[in-house]
Amino acid sequence: MATRSALRIRLCALQIAAGLFFLAGAAILFPAVCPAAAPADAPLPVAVSIPPQRCFVEQIGGPDVSVTVLVDKGRDPHSYEPTAAQMVQVGKAVLYFAVDLPFESQWLPRFQSLNKNMTVLRHIDVITRLHGKPDLALRSAGSPGRNAKEHGHDHGLEGDDPHIWLSPRVVLQIIPQICDALSRARPEKRAEFQARAAAFTATVSALDARMAALFAPLPRDRRTFLTFHQGWAYFAHNYDLREASVELQGKEPGPKGMAALLDFAAREKIRVVVTDPMANAGTVAAIASNIKARVIAASPLDPDWPGEMWRVASALSSALAR
Q: Rounded to two decimals, what is the model's pTM?
């Protein structure tokens, strides 16, 4: 009996020690549940979901902000999970700018639970939203087989396209939100934020005008392009183009759907495919070869947002004009 009692005491002690170890580890990994206010002269800690947002915030915040990006270039925002180091940074952030990507619905509540002093701002609250994801291949009466039985994902036609940053005209709507949020967090820097926001607005407006000029001369029958992943709805809408996608609801079409897609592409005389780092390179090559299309490799998460927008627009307008 004495031996059993001793074992119980030792087991209880081990459980208590394990619990204390876990709590100590949590305190080390996530120290900012109630973060102390940053010194007034220190850069304002801001968290964002993707690299283009860092560009927007830094253009307006300048040296007065320190930006943490969660989904870096080369990572998949659909399957993203934050690292321990990123959780620490989010725990220190005063502001979080959200894009409405799938991972945010899962992780933003956790981030807010971790950091109760962090203000979350959603860009979709201040933009003119497009509802649904136009997909000409799906909606064409001559394209049977591309239906829900062959596909299934939360990125479907019934949802909205979250890739709002791929249109300069949408970014122009986001700039005032960022400027206002930074100014509220650091009122003493309001004048500097407003001046930088005005300069960035002029830059984005000029980019928009240059892109519009690229696409303006295209005839109506040269405005349709194929994308692998549904993500260019705002881009297409704002420059009077038409996007059709290889994927539907996040999955590649089956054999019947692929045949219908190729027939559609041939009928519409589509000669360009816009792809991205997450696309199936083999499928893209096969489609491009079949319809004799040029492939444009886009990088939606490129941190050089103005440069990437201009590069894609230039390549696409040239390919459409052929």
A: 0.82
